[in-house]
Design goal:
Strand order of the largest sheet: 1-2
Shape: globular
Strand content: 15-25%
Distance between the termini: 14 Å
Largest sheet: 2 strands, antiparallel
Number of helices: 3
Structural class: alpha+beta
Number of strands: 2
Helix content: 55-70%
């Protein structure tokens, strides 16, 4: 069920995130427009304050592309 209050809250939180990290949303936009396709490998690395690091990756499948297209469509309707 669509919750307009939650969507408004999330929009406000996203706006704050963009102010805090202005380069990251731009990076996501470029990646989404130019790099995301079946077979693309996405790797994520997280480093804790103490230097401990964890990395994982995934290769995008056709079903992943369907999910991402549905998410993108949902976002364009808000």
């Amino acid at each position: 069920m669509f919750n307009p209050t939650l969507m408004f809250k999330m929009k406000s939180m996203w706006d704050q995130f963009e102010r805090n990290h202005p380069k990251f949303p731009k990076f996501l936009k470029v990646v989404g427009n130019e790099y995301i396709q079946e077979g693309t490998v996405i790797e994520i690395s997280v480093t804790k304050a103490n230097g401990e690091n964890l990395t994982s990756n995934m290769r995008l499948t056709a079903s992943d592309m369907e999910l991402l297209a549905a998410i993108k469509e949902m976002g364009s309707q808000v």
